[in-house]
Design brief:
Elements lengths: L9 E7 L8 E7 L6 E7 L9 E7 L8 E5 L3 E6 L6 E6 L4 E5 L9 E2 L11 E6 L9 E6 L3 E8 L2 E9 L1 E8 L5 E5 L2 E6 L6 E6 L3 E6 L8 E4 L5 E6 L6 E6 L3 E6 L7 E4 L4 E6 L6 E6 L3 E6 L9 E4 L8 E6 L5 E6 L4 E6 L9
Antiparallel strand pairs: 1-30, 2-3, 3-4, 4-5, 6-7, 7-8, 8-9, 10-11, 11-12, 12-13, 14-15, 16-17, 17-18, 18-19, 20-21, 21-22, 22-23, 24-25, 25-26, 26-27, 28-29, 29-30
């Protein structure tokens, strides 16, 4: 890297795969907050014609050949999240609209708690789940966002999941008038959300029509702000871990945009010339972020070195008809993991130019 003039590379380390997930796509990746080598991978399918069973696997960097834990599910998994204080608990959202909690302490492959049709499950796929701080009675709770436009809070009370609708997204001025005088209200489709690190009630919702809503848990009826962010679905949105005003979003319209939440227009716009599946901030620097595009490439940017171009754009997935879907930085090691549509997760090491710590 000394002679590369600020550019960097990704060194492939290990490929994690499992025989029974070859036909499934990697739909979610998450590092365990306690064991820094352990990560969970959710498998499902983004193709609504090919829905079937899902899997939840946990791998460790110490053993690429076989998963540590295997959980099966009836429906494809779409998202997952580890609890920060109880690292053995995972919240999971499914394609059929259910949510569940899996516990690593139980040796069965069934979830410990699950929602049901009578207890407020979503009517569309759940795209993201996120644990929140415990409520006043110290019960565990997490939020979920779904294409049905509902943001739901799930609380674990006496071994059952109790739901509370927080927000219902509606598309403005799209009440369809039918000839018979029927009125159909169309609902916005939530695709992702992000909770502020310091202000507990503040969060962002990304939608299928490309808008990003700034919301508060305290007001359920209206939004604090609306960003006309993208022309297509917002695939991911997340707050910068260091700078409390800044967030990043990516979309199928080929762009990654960086925002200040007090300003309506983006500060930076990057065109990656292909649909962007996922974007994440790095845990070690406020200026480094990475994105994956559907042409199989990973892109790593460092704004403190180059505000206009990626320091590294590298082909990660080589086979045709395969796409990269998700990327995550390891919280302590200079490693990223990237999932694809063939059920593989590849771990890559960041070269020194890509992991510079700020002064």
């Amino acid at each position: 890297d000394e002679f590369r003039n600020q550019r960097g590379t990704l060194l492939p380390l290990w490929n994690f795969q499992y025989d029974k997930t070859k036909k499934l796509a990697v739909t979610a990746i998450s590092w365990n907050p306690k064991y820094k080598d352990l990560f969970a991978v959710g498998y499902g399918s983004y193709d609504f014609m090919k829905q079937g069973q899902g899997r939840l696997l946990l791998f460790t960097l110490k053993n690429p050949s076989f998963p540590e834990y295997v959980f099966n599910s009836e429906s494809g998994i779409m998202c997952l999240d580890f609890h920060n204080d109880y690292p053995y608990l995972m919240a999971v959202g499914f394609y059929d609209g259910n949510v569940a909690i899996y516990s690593l302490k139980r040796r069965t492959s069934q979830p410990s708690y699950t929602s049901s049709g009578s207890s407020g499950k979503h009517s569309e796929p759940v795209w993201q789940v996120k644990w929140q701080n415990n409520d006043m009675c110290n019960n565990l709770n997490f939020f979920s966002v779904s294409s049905d436009g509902r943001i739901v809070s799930w609380t674990l009370i006496k071994n059952e999941l109790v739901h509370t609708d927080i927000i219902k997204l509606s598309v403005e001025a799209t009440t369809v008038q039918w000839p018979e005088g029927l009125q159909l209200q169309t609902f916005g489709c939530g695709t992702s959300f992000a909770f502020h690190k310091k202000i507990d009630s503040l969060f962002l919702i990304g939608t299928e029509e490309g808008k990003i809503y700034k919301c508060s848990k305290l007001y359920s009826s209206q939004f604090l702000d609306v960003f006309e962010a993208h022309h297509m679905a917002v695939d991911s949105v997340s707050w910068n871990p260091y700078h409390l005003k800044v967030f990043i979003s990516c979309s199928s319209d080929w762009t990654v945009k960086i925002w200040d939440h007090t300003i309506k227009t983006p500060m930076f716009v990057y065109d990656l010339s292909c649909a962007v599946g996922d974007v994440v901030w790095s845990p070690y620097s406020s200026t480094v972020f990475a994105a994956v595009t559907t042409d199989g490439k990973a892109h790593v940017f460092d704004l403190s070195i180059n505000k206009y171009e990626a320091l590294c754009t590298q082909l990660v997935v080589t086979k045709k008809k395969n796409k990269t879907t998700h990327i995550q930085f390891n919280p302590v090691y200079p490693i990223v993991i990237i999932g694809d549509e063939r059920g593989h997760v590849i771990s890559l090491k960041l070269s020194p130019n890509l992991r510079k710590m700020p002064k």
